Amino acid sequence: MGSVRCSSFVKINAAAATLLLSLHLLLSSPTAAIDDEETIISRFQAYLRINTSHPSPNYREAADFLVDQARSIGLWYQTVEFAEGKLRQYLEAVRRLKASRFQPLRSIYISFVPDEEIGGNDGAALFVNSTLFSNMNVGIALDEGMANPGETYRPFYGERSPWWLVINATGEPGHGSGLYDNSAAENLQKSLEAMRRFRASQFDLVKSGNRSEGEVVSVNLAFLKAGTPTPTGFVMNTQPSEALAGFDIRVPPTADPDSLDRRIEEEWAPTSRNMTSWFELKVPVRDKFGRPMATRTDGSDPWWTMLEEAVTQAGEKLGRPEIFPASTDARYFREQGVPAIGFSPMANTPILLHDHNEFLNRQVYLRGIDVYEKIIKAYASYAEHTSY
Ligand SMILES: *[C@@H]1O[C@H](CO)[C@@H](O)[C@H](O)[C@H]1NC(C)=O
Ligand SMILES: *[C@@H]1O[C@H](CO)[C@@H](O)[C@H](O)[C@H]1NC(C)=O
Ligand SMILES: *[C@@H]1O[C@H](CO)[C@@H](O)[C@H](O)[C@H]1NC(C)=O
Ligand SMILES: *[C@@H]1O[C@H](CO)[C@@H](O)[C@H](O)[C@H]1NC(C)=O
Ligand SMILES: *[C@@H]1O[C@H](CO)[C@@H](O)[C@H](O)[C@H]1NC(C)=O
């Protein structure tokens, strides 16, 4: 069980679990007995009972629990000050594989890292940057996906990168009654109009059913700022010399980030219109080798084929591969060029991320363990070298 250095205890509820498979030989150690369903469910319940609510979350107990579990099935682990995985199913699946005396060709690492919900800067981002991680030589990573009220599992092969853009328009200030060219507000309005057209063209692709929402660039206005405030509102007879607008842009890995950069420079915030722009946040759309951060999901990718086969073997179905609508830790692995699939074996389950009384039916939980067992077995038996 590989894990991460972290300087302090952190959120447990929202932490992410990732499964990593790499190319080293795992030494087999003592096997555990095969457990019945009640035992498996009780272990999950015991884990859920650990109170990790704020303001005084009991992270130590949760961490100790996971370490105990790892130890009880003879897993090597590296400690850490760390957190949950809502997918304790990885551990249960590995427990079963050990019980069946399965001999993997690859190492299986289960990492529990904190902070996924708040960007992962002190979690997965640090982890993928460590020599611990590079020495693992990871071939494939599995990260969280999403529940599905329908019957299939939803696999995610990429996610949209947030670009938070601010544009700043300047122009001659003037009296509110004056008509003249190139005021800050006029310059900004030209940008807003161009951006609105672009947004509509992307949205049309979704409306026509040609693209899913995750596959288009979304551009949404986050703020507008201009004018001279007074205690009760704004000065009404002045045209301001500066006008700012902020946008939340989400860029799918299938888009060309260079052409979007050009569009911003030439159409949305051109210096010819006395405008400047900057990013409050700009998550890369390409990996460190300059390739789109999307994991292949066709016959050309052995990891994808194995995943499909394992799920089918378990008597379940995978849905169409999708772009995750928000952010997960998988992007940190993809950024390193490691293929990563976001995947939670939770079918017939409402999407209750972060909701009150989020629940998981016991049969769905147990089914998920079967599915992971098949996937991990297939992945860990794959002998061929894959390089990224
Ligand atoms: C869990 O801990 C929080 C404080 O961190 C407390 O408010 C809450 O009542 C506890 N819940 C249970 C079920 O003990
Ligand atoms: C990762 O490592 C590089 C080079 O050592 C460093 O510049 C960067 O800040 C590190 N990133 C994180 C998130 O620690
Ligand atoms: C907007 O641009 C003008 C002109 O370059 C500059 O003086 C002003 O500080 C900028 N505003 C912000 C919020 O950066
Ligand atoms: C949708 O895609 C089809 C096939 O690629 C194309 O013929 C059609 O014009 C597209 N429709 C829109 C609205 O883009
Ligand atoms: C840009 O600013 C310069 C200097 O203030 C001004 O002469 C010019 O008209 C402005 N152009 C536009 C398009 O706002």
From TrEMBL:
Pfam families: M20_dimer, Peptidase_M20
Catalytic residues (UniProt): 116 (proton acceptor)
Lineage of origin: Eukaryota, Viridiplantae, Streptophyta, Embryophyta, Tracheophyta
MF GO annotations: aminoacylase activity; metal ion binding
Binding, Zn(2+) 2: 117, 354
Residues annotated as signal peptide: 1-33
One cellular component (GO) term of this entry: cytoplasm
Organism: Turnera subulata
An individual GO BP term: amino acid metabolic process
Protein name (record): Peptidase M20 dimerisation domain-containing protein
Note on cofactor: Binds 2 Zn(2+) ions per subunit.
